[in-house]
């Protein structure tokens, strides 16, 4: 019967999160070594090779087709002024899909397509940014034509390991969280979860040592060291020596175009709101585990922020740098393994 059919997901209407702000300032950070530059389809590899025959190919580290990088770790198409040469010469539609979309995303739900954003980009976290409007970002999250493409499809929400609810039941619960995140209440109190839950088959000190040992000379490796160092400090109370500031020049540019300083609470609250809104966690984890995982990364980010402020960094910049680190590490296989080990009742 029709009434028993599961409600389908859809990508329209396009739904930005209220209060989410973003514009691309061309800082060039997303074209550096914060992540692999890709993946690419075989068609995209062929298109990029027509522009530069050595620009793309198979990457054993990522086990996929990727854009190649220059000696500094940045994309081969990144110019000295930090603009993309493909975009500058041929227009945004000529770029691979992943480049065109980042830091935007789209999740299909029963009520429409949620526009999401990543925060490992100072264009998302700092500066005078307008609120996201569907008409401004639709071309970036579409297939090159007029069809928005979803990164994921979410019909129901796992609240806990034993309880799943309808999307319509989730919306008022989520709305309350988002409303509280816009206020001044403690973010840990809103998440209502203990950071650093017990880990199956491991310990947080062991994970800290593994993260520190993952340094590979890249800026991502420095971020891993920051997170590992901070986990160790929070576990044993020692005062670590900072391992350097990854992507500092990009944040110098972001601060230069951001004369009005914001608060760290605003930066962290905005980040957590987008993490909840994205529903990325709902694919594999419950909201109970997502809250504990977010509480853990928030605790790490707040400590990093405090240390950066102690070295003279402005509050909003210190928070943005901290979010950058915990999000880029949070997207890695290292952190996925940690999430899989978390024990949450």
Topology summary:
Elements: E1 14-16, H1 42-51, E2 56-59, E3 64-67, H2 85-90, H3 97-101, E4 104-109, E5 112-117, H4 122-125, H5 134-137, E6 152-153, E7 156-158, E8 164-166, H6 167-181, H7 187-191, H8 204-212, H9 219-236, H10 248-256, H11 264-278, H12 287-310, H13 315-330, H14 333-341
Parallel strand pairs: 1-5, 4-6
Antiparallel strand pairs: 2-3, 4-5, 7-8
Number of domains: 2
Order of helices and strands: EHEEHHEEHHEEEHHHHHHHHH
Overall geometry:
globular
- The stretches of 5 or more residues where confidence is low (pLDDT under 50) are 1-5
What class do helices, strands and sheet pairing give?
Answer: alpha/beta
How many individual β-strands?
8
Sheet having the most strands: 4 strands, mixed
Model description:
- This protein is α/β, with parallel strands linked by helices and 345 residues long.
- It folds into two domains: 2-37 and 73-155, no CATH class; 157-341, no CATH class.
- Helix content is 43%, strand content 9%.
- It has 14 helices and eight strands.
- The protein has helices at 42-51, 85-90, 97-101, 122-125, 134-137, 167-181, 187-191, 204-212, 219-236, 248-256, 264-278, 287-310, 315-330, 333-341, and strands at 14-16, 56-59, 64-67, 104-109, 112-117, 152-153, 156-158, 164-166.
- It has a four-stranded mixed beta sheet, with helices on one face.
- Strand 7 and strand 8 form a beta hairpin.
- Helix 11 runs parallel beside helix 13 (315-330).
- The radius of gyration is 20 Å and the shape is globular.
- The two termini are 37 Å apart.
- Mean pLDDT is 92; it is low at 1-5.
